[in-house]
Amino acid sequence: MEPVEMVPPLSQRTTSGWAISSGSSAYLTPQQEEPEPAKSAKRTSRGFVPFFQDYQLWNVIGVSVAFMILFSSFHTCGMLQASVLSEVHDEHFNGTGKEGYYSSAAIYTVMAISNWIAPSVIAYTGPKFGMVLGGIPYCLFMAVFFRPYLGTLYASSILLGIGAAVLWTSQGVFLTINSSDQTMSRNAGMFWAILQLSNLWGNIFATVELSGQKSIDSALRTRLFVGLLCAAILGVLLFLVLRYPGKRDRGRTATSRSTSTKVRCLHCTTKWREWVWLREIRQSFRLLMTLKMLLLAITFAYTGFMLTFWSGVFGTSIHFTKVLGDERNYLLGLSGVVIGLGEITSGALFGFLGSTIKRRGRSSIAVLGVVLQLISYLLIFLFFPFDSPSHETDLATYVAPNKDVALICSFLLGFGDAAINVQIYALLGNTYSADSAPAFALFKFVQSVTAAIAFFYATMTLPGQLVIVTATGILGAASFCIVELLNHREETKGLEIQLQSPKKSTNL
Q: What is the DSSP-derived secondary structure letter of residue 402?
């Protein structure tokens, strides 16, 4: 792909061209002129036309749907992985369930390392084809479960870790370049709400297949993963129909935090193909050493521990709790559905309230998400056997295990997860809009490291795991609030400087 000239979106074009903004010849801003009366009247009388012409919004919807379909496969696989492998016993593979944990640990370990090179890969492929390239290993991973071998399981896990780093960093860049400061919260919420439909559809499929089944035999495993593999392939193919933003608007919006003046790059001196891997790694290290990113790293770390807990440990604990009866497999799938409902509800709610949240602060939503998850951790501590993450058990609990409580915990975990992640996406998209790839890569790096660590100790007793997620959750919420406070002070200071500048010019 040749470097493409960067042009402003239709909503920001004027008939009189562009004026070079102060500070850099590489950035240009539209001259402040009134739009043509005819165009203005047309937009007023037929408001639906701009909506259908807003290709950036359709790009956000398209990438959200593609991720939803792809992760309908992967999220369901993640929840079933340990349970499925624990029931494979033949001359090629003798599963215990721990292989699923180790496979997930390998995925997130490799993903953490690969996040350092992901921005450089995207520099050559662009975000659209970066998502295609990153999605292919997900399909290969699904195919391994038709005939599990330990070697192919771990090899595909390593490939998936590399692909996941490229996929998620590409997604963060793609979302940012198709958003403005005003639409970032809305688009992040929309993406997260649509993405979490994956938990709904994938787990409905698993629940129907597992209903009435006491074990997962070879025939059932094949049916499950044929469906999951087809969904993964369809999701990857949908990335190809997205409109590549470089054709009209690269959209890399740089907002001056001191003046709050938005500029857009038209003839950037640094083009995508000129980004070398060493420059991107240096940029990521420099960003990691800033105060804001160091504080956010605590929040990122919590999302990794939390991800492992709700996507791997909690479902396995349900499956291994004998008191829940013969419908444990059915309840495992249903728990995934309810987690998805919580994610969807939270993402949609806070996505629609994006402008209000930005005005009143994102920290309150992040704190709410952590508090709801702390409630679920307390319920899990009281209702589930302490050794349920590692093997089947009927160990006594403080309160007898209950199916309804398991589903309530599932909803709280999902709702809190979306609340936190949506605010992180919106914060990164607005704060690092000028160069979002390193910021999202660091997010996924820290999240992947802690998720990998959590999968390595996933067979630890429940109280130990709950202490870790509780402590990091409280610290993560506090650090997020501090970053929001720092951003608010910078914006306030920028407005004060902007208001004082006319007076200074008048005195001169």
A: -
Rounded (10°) angle between helices 436-456 and 291-308: 40
Give dist(CA 385, CA 197) in Å, integer. 30
DSSP state of 254: E
> What's the rounded Cα separation, in Å, for the pair 442 and 325?
43
DSSP 79: H
Answering whether pTM is above 0.70, one says: no
Secondary structure of 381-393 as H, E, C letters: HHHCCCCCCCCCE
Instruction: Reply yes or no on whether the pLDDT at 485 is more than 80.
Output: yes
Q: How confident is the model at residue 482 (pLDDT cuts 50, 70, 90)?
A: very high
pLDDT tens profile 385-396: 998 888 888 888
Q: What three-state secondary structure class fits 20? A: strand
Q: In what order do the strands lie in the sheet with 27-30?
A: 18-20, 27-30, 262-265, 253-255
Which contiguous run of DSSP H or E holds residue 28? strand 27-30
Give the count of alpha carbons within 13 A of 47, CB side only: 1
Spatial CB neighbours of 480, under 8 Å, sequence gap ≥ 6: 295, 296, 299, 362, 363, 366, 367, 420, 423, 424, 427
